[in-house]
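> Could you send the thiopurine S-methyltransferase prediction when you get a chance?

Sure thing. Input:
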Amino acid sequence: TDIGAQKDRVVTEEEWLQKWETGNIGFHKEQGHPLLQKYLDVLLNGRSGLRIFFPLCGKAVEMKWLADMGHSVVGVEVSEQALKEFFAEHSLPYCKEPVPEISGAKKFQSTSGNISLYCCSIYDLSSSIVGKFDGVWDRGALVAVNPCDRQRYASLMITLMEKNSSYLLVTVSYDPNKHKGPPFYVPECEIKSLFG
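Output:
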């Protein structure tokens, strides 16, 4: 499938911040995603107390849902506003501290300690900073990454995964010549080449 006009499309960090500032966040879902509920057993695979990663997390309600089940949740998001709204909307107390390894980055951590959200570019993260994960919930990250950065994104995600981790990925299917994205169209053959 031709990804047409999308191939060279770039959405800047400033544009994403602007979306949060103006409330143009149609990608945010107030309710938990039905596919996460449907495939939760695939993600957890009978295990408890997992470390679960939310790339480009925004203020995803599923983070609290999984934390309430006893899992540790780590997210990364460029918008500090989104992270503050997440804690406010769930009435969760948190503390904020700098991340010594990443200039200008901040870590927002719930007082209970089971939710840690990093405010920085996802490309500034590494397993030496955030550790490795048993599961990844990618509902809107791969499809939001600029097409030219997909390989870099997938390579990073692979380095953050434990040997037997589960990666749940939600993509969207449509004619990429009719919509410039994001969300971007990622053909299945590309997903296979990125993640194997």
